[in-house]
Amino acid sequence: MPTFGAVVFSLRDMTRLAECLKSVAWADEILLLHAGGVPEIGGGEFPALRIRGIRSLAEAKKHCGEIGTDWVLQLWAEERVDEDLAQELRALCRDRSPNASEYRIAVRSRILGEWVEGSLSGPSPALRLARKSQEMPLGWWDEGRSVPRLARGWIEDYGCSELGRAVERVQDLSDLWAEHLREIDSPPGPMTSVLCSLKIFIKMLLRNRIFSRGIAGIALSSLASYAVLLSGAKAWEAGHVGVKRKA
């Protein structure tokens, strides 16, 4: 039977890592990639867990090659797999002839006491599950890829349940993404960053039926689009402002 693994990305001050790990404790392998300090995994026992320290997405990509399972799920440390999704993932592992080699999964965030579709990483459903050989970018820049969606279940994100921490997470995400954008062949310019940010905002509002989620939907859409804009701006600043100062 095909095996299942999870890669969990943890940034500093993420407080729900233990709950995340418990939601995938049944996996054959769990690889925790932690940036900043020592991760707090609580008192749970996770025999399949390995921990690696990272400083960038490039380092994370190298470590991801260590996981040896047939299927790999990507999670942030503030996220959890709900029971319906866990059942769907187990069923996929029993299927020896799946319809696709990668899948999008529905993601929802807890913000201002409401569940809102999407997360700070971008709109839902998000590309989070793939065969080991597939490369999955953990961010908003995968929007153009046509990938099927798993039928049931949610990845539930609690990283926005406190707005103060959500703003801090935007800063951490944008730092990580900006470094990634500086390393690609054609990094986005200022106008591209603005347009991508606007696209994310509109798409997330539409997924949540414009104003039906009230201020919670608007807040999440704004934070996610700001994370995109900020990562593009930081990448542009690193490549241009510093150069001009030296000149």
Structure notes:
With 247 residues, the chain is α/β, with parallel strands linked by helices. It is 40% helix and 21% strand. The protein has helices spanning 17-23, 57-64, 83-94, 163-183, 190-207, 214-246; strands at residues 4-11, 29-35, 49-53, 71-76, 79-81, 102-105, 107-111, 114-117, 126-131, 155-157. The strands form two sheets. Strands 3-2-1-4-9-6 form a six-stranded mixed beta sheet, sandwiched between helices. Strands 5-10-7-8 form a four-stranded mixed beta sheet. Strand 1, helix 1 (17-23) and strand 2 (29-35) form a beta-alpha-beta unit. Helix 4 (163-183) packs across helix 6 and helix 5 packs antiparallel against helix 6 (214-246). It is globular and about 50 Å long. The relative contact order is 0.14. Residues 243-247 have low confidence and may be disordered.
Could you report the average pLDDT, rounded to the nearest whole number? 85
Helix content: 40-55%
User: Count of helices?
Assistant: 6
Low-confidence stretches: 243-247
Shape: globular
How far apart lie the N and C ends? 60 Å
Mind summarizing the main beta sheet? Answer: 6 strands, mixed
**Which radius of gyration do the C-alpha atoms yield?**
18 Å
The beta-strand count equals: 10
Helix-strand makeup class: alpha/beta
Strand content: 15-25%
Task: List the helices and strands in order.
Answer: EHEEHEEHEEEEEHHH
Main sheet: which strands, in order across? 3-2-1-4-9-6
